Amino acid sequence: MSVQESDERLAVENAPPRNPGAPELPAEHALLGLLSLSSGTAHGYHLARQFRRDQPLGEVIRLESAMLYKHLKKLARLGWITMTTEDQAPRPPRQICHLTSAGTEELHRWLAEPVARTREIRLEFLVKLYFAMHLAPDLALHLATEQQTVMEQLADSLAEQRAALHVPSDASPGDDLFFQDLVLDLRQRQTHAAAEWLGQTVTTLQSVQAPGTSVAT
Q1: Which residue of 93, 136, 170, 195 is surrounded by the most CB atoms within 10 Å?
Q2: How far is CA 34 from CA 39, 43, 86, in A?
Q3: Does the domain spanning 3-111 belong to CATH 3.40.50.720?
Q4: In the chain, what percentage of residues exceed pLDDT 70?
């Protein structure tokens, strides 16, 4: 057994149980995804560079170096990565991150699940889609299709909630029902827009996967 394999086994065995009250953040799964794209191993500077504004992932999520290393330590505690040091004298040693089998399993679980709320489309879903497109195009299509279904169901639920308010026709801006209806109207419109965009995304992904087709850039 290699040193890395031994470290990985110990990381999994010593990992604390997951706390449902403290869910992992999109940035933490993004780090798992970056490690997967780097064949499972990368140093901290390489990971940090992917979150810069001039990088594709940086258009969606930004992560400062201090927070990056905080997230890496958490991932190590969970047993999803291990960390080693590499001597580069006379400069300080640098940290090398290694994706564990448990980390790979967690990444695949996370990528397969659509987000539950419309506000999560802008960040978490786009991060999922980025890695799904790089790691498994078929998964990207499945994810976008499932997400469209979730948004359509949510839009229907919001419509039912609005109808259940029974806002009087003579309601004034000072009435609570009037305000609640405005809020639900906004959420419903945002959700419809997200579902429409997802439908277009599904069509685009389907066309790219079809033989002899491509997306113009």
Answers
A1: 195
A2: 9, 11, 19
A3: no
A4: 86
